[in-house]
Design a protein that fits this description.
Elements: E1 2-6, E2 9-16, E3 24-29, E4 38-40, E5 44-46, H1 50-58, E6 61-65, E7 73-75, E8 79-80, E9 83-84, H2 94-99, H3 102-119, E10 124-130, H4 132-141, E11 147-153, H5 159-173
């Protein structure tokens, strides 16, 4: 678990090594939801459980970078309805909202790749972008020769906007919300 700094930003990331001789690194680029990747209660659990199985099956090292102003590892009790508790409410912080854009996110991932490439010489990076991460991954991949493969999943060009519209429509259909 490491925290790097770049342009006044604190970048929280962690690295799980599969085997000492493994040089392949799977970099997971998560979606826009400001949630930690590992939750602690009685045990540690991944919020994206498939990551652990991918790493084990393919014997790859796992590298995960946090969202702006979100730690990778947090107590499960600080989540409510998929959001982190910040101060007295359960919405993303202002720092997260300001930093959660394509340019800033791409720079954060690029900073971590440069950092890890210096430590793990001759490593190959495999980028896996989920949701918003699927938009960021190609931007980052084109900058580095050490990126060997790129995969994206759950791509949606309108991302959270469509989700909020759908949620509002469901609330209207259930009679819990009015558009008047």
């Amino acid at each position: 678990h490491t925290i790097a700094s770049a342009a006044g930003d604190s970048i929280d990331f962690f690295y799980i090594k599969a085997k000492p001789e493994t040089k392949d690194i799977l970099l997971f680029l998560q979606g826009s939801l400001p949630i930690p990747l590992i939750l602690k209660d009685q045990k540690l659990s991944f919020t994206y459980p498939f990551l652990k199985s991918i790493v084990q099956k393919h014997q790859m090292n796992l590298l995960v970078v946090s969202q702006p102003d979100v730690h990778n590892i947090e107590q499960k009790s600080i989540l409510k309805d998929g959001y982190l508790k910040t101060d007295s409410n359960y919405f993303p912080s202002d720092k997260h909202r300001v930093g959660n854009n394509l340019t800033n996110q791409a720079n954060r991932y690029a900073t971590v790749i440069r950092f890890m490439a210096e430590i793990m010489l001759e490593s190959s990076f495999y980028l896996y972008g989920h949701s918003q991460g699927s938009r960021i991954a190609p931007v980052v991949a084109k900058e580095f020769k050490c990126v060997k493969k790129l995969a994206v999943a759950a791509c949606n060009p309108v991302n959270r906007s469509y989700q909020r519209i759908t949620e509002a429509r469901i609330q209207y259909i259930l009679g819990k919300k009015s558009f008047e």
